[in-house]
Design the sequence.
């Protein structure tokens, strides 16, 4: 059973506003809450809620009414009407289930009002791979439907390799942003594509982005080898934490000192031997899970909950969540556009309540968002021509030979320069491909075939005659 949450006064105010979708005046609201709050305190709290974007204030003077702000607001609303004025500064969040709203209400309480807790091993013990599931079957089928590319029977990691450049930028930026990194997406693209660090940024932020790039490349390039073995997770941590920890020997190693979590009342396990034992149990359980989405979500829950490393635990879990997705040629999870506050509060729900509903809502929204991005990109990609790739050097040699001989491309001239590496049964197709290259040949792309400008100009002049 989920833990019961003690609703504080603020949550009670929000709950009452939620029951009055058309808004409610101060007098009527105070009449409902006078047993828990004074009128003056209620006025102050409402003013604060309006500033934070949780409440919308409408009307003027005695006509003022308050209502709960929508859960999902993007940007800032500043609407002026006559004679009334409505102002709201809203937060960006993901759609929530009622259970998630309850978790959010709890973790938004001041730390002093939340009960300190330690690691609860029964939370892990209550999970039985392929019997227990954090993601209902219907939801997993929905995710598989939207995340499966049309040609999903190709080798492991093929889909991720197809979109690798975009994935490197998106996942490096989005995952780093969830840690407070201030690099913009454009800054990240310049750093990854051209090695240009953003001006005015902390060197550690630059290092964080580059570490993500290295870790993602490991997952994609070694897709058929990486799994939930300890070595893989150690490697991910070593790459992600490189240059970011005071103790370099802590990279890729179970921590040997206690840690705490800022803003949380959760206190993780301190004993290294116990940490390593539970770490291996978690990975063993993850390997047993057959469904890739359940696998991904399981490690997003239990790796950061255990906090096996001195730092960078959540980053490791986010990239590790992509292991089963990449191996099954599913759309990867980039965390693009995930609101930082939603993710942080979801993790607090896991840490302090052992409840996964809020993190599940974030996970599902994030995956749907990723699919929208990458499946659209995938459709725009031109599939590689394997024949052209196989004979790439031979093709360049043939085109260059004809140009240097200042001959027109005919069946005879092309056949005469076919390199010996081209199989006899491929000759006809190779000749056709050479003709296609000559149709597209111009002074701007002649360099692709090792042809210099003067050589191209001489050939062009000769073949015009």
Sequence:
């Amino acid at each position: 059973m989920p833990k019961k949450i003690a609703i504080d006064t603020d949550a009670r105010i929000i709950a009452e506003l939620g029951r009055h979708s058309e808004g409610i005046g101060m007098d009527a609201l105070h009449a409902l809450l006078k047993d828990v709050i004074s009128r003056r305190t209620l006025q102050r709290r409402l003013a604060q809620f309006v500033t934070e974007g949780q409440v919308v204030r409408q009307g003027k003077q005695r006509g003022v009414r308050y209502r709960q702000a929508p859960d999902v607001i993007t940007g800032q609303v500043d609407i002026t009407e006559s004679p009334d004025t409505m102002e709201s500064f809203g937060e960006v969040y993901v759609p929530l289930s009622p259970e998630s709203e309850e978790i959010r209400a709890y973790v938004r309480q001041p730390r002093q009002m939340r009960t300190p807790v330690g690691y609860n091993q029964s939370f892990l013990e209550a999970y039985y791979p392929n019997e227990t599931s954090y993601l209902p079957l219907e939801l997993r089928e929905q995710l598989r439907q939207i995340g499966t590319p049309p040609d999903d029977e190709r080798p492991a990691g093929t889909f991720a390799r197809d979109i690798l450049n975009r994935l490197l930028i998106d996942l490096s930026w989005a995952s780093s942003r969830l840690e407070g990194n201030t690099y913009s997406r454009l800054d990240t693209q310049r750093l990854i594509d051209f090695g240009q660090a953003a001006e005015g940024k902390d060197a550690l932020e630059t290092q964080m982005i580059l570490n993500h790039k290295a870790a993602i490349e490991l997952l994609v390039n070694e897709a058929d080898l990486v799994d939930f073995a300890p070595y893989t997770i150690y490697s991910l941590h070593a790459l992600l934490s490189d240059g970011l920890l005071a103790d370099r020997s802590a990279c890729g190693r179970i921590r040997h000192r206690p840690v705490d979590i800022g803003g949380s009342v959760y206190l993780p396990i301190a004993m290294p031997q116990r940490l390593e034992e539970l770490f291996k149990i978690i990975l063993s359980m993850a390997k047993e899970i057959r469904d890739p989405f359940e696998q991904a979500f399981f490690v997003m829950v239990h790796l950061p909950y255990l906090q096996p490393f001195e730092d960078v635990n959540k980053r490791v879990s986010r990239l590790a969540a992509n292991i089963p997705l990449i191996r099954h040629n599913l759309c990867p999870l980039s965390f693009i556009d995930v609101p930082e506050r939603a993710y942080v509060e979801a993790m607090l729900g896991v840490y302090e309540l052992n409840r996964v509903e809020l993190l599940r809502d974030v996970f599902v929204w994030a995956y749907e968002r990723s699919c929208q991005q990458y499946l659209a990109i995938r459709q725009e990609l031109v599939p590689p021509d394997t024949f052209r790739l196989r004979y790439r050097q031979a093709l360049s040699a043939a085109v260059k030979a004809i140009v240097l001989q200042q001959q027109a491309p005919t069946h005879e001239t092309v056949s005469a320069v076919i390199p010996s590496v081209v199989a006899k049964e491929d000759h006809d197709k190779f000749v056709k491909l050479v003709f296609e290259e000559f149709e597209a040949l111009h002074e701007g792309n002649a360099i692709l075939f090792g042809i210099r400008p003067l050589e191209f100009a001489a050939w062009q002049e000769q073949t015009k005659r």
